[in-house]
Predict the 3D structure of the following.
Amino acid sequence: MKRLLLFLATNIAVLLVLGIAANVLCVFVSGTTLEAKLGPEYAQLAVFAFVYGVVGAFISLLLSKPMAKFACNARTIDGSEGEAERWLVATVEELARRANVKTPEVAIYPGAANAFATGAFRNSALVAVSTDIMGQMSKEELRAVLGHEMSHVANGDMVTLTLVQGVLNAFVIFFSRAIAYVLANGGNGDRRRNSSGVYFLVVMVLQLVLGLLASLIVFAFSRKREYAADAGSAKLLGSPSPMIAALRRLGNLRPGVLPDSLRAMGIAEGRSRTSIWATHPSLDDRIEALQNIGVNAFV
């Protein structure tokens, strides 16, 4: 709940800052404020940016569990289905106790090796693993993967990632339209009859450019939280060795491709090198980071 309140408060604060920055920029360029140029449309733009950045992301977060189950054809298990399912549920329960969170829903979905965690609340999350990762990994390696996902849950990474995305969405929608209006209508406060085409063209270009820049920020944050989740798994298990072994095993497999909405939530992305366009660091970089932690840090 604290993270959700932070989510709302941060977005409101960002929009206020955006409004001030846009007005300062407009005064510098044209000698008058953006609010004076737009009139009533200024408030409409601010509200639209808020709804797009906050409400849209918030609804997506609330629907993340059912959407994830549907997208991956995942089935929730309770441990009564068989020995493998019983071990999986018991392991998640144990790791949840260690992480001091309520046991999340546990699910299995058909597909290549991968796993993910999602959910709007850290005490009401979902952890899912693929059938292939269950069949290809040892119990120690799979336990490390589950520790990684439980660290995401305990850290509230799903909410934080949505917070970052929501703020950036608001930034893109507000500035692309504000800048386009100023450019399309020149330095005066009156609309030009032939400015509509220029306005929409500039909006499209700015949304593309600013959207790409926003994506780079999201990807950078996502990579950072992957390192933190690896370290969290090592802490939950008392040693980095199981997580290192799990990552090495993944290196010999082809990680399953998750839907775009879940790509940042998976255990691995499948890239051989860390890229600014990647949601995950490379497996080699993650292994090196774990090795640098050292076993003594958990003694």
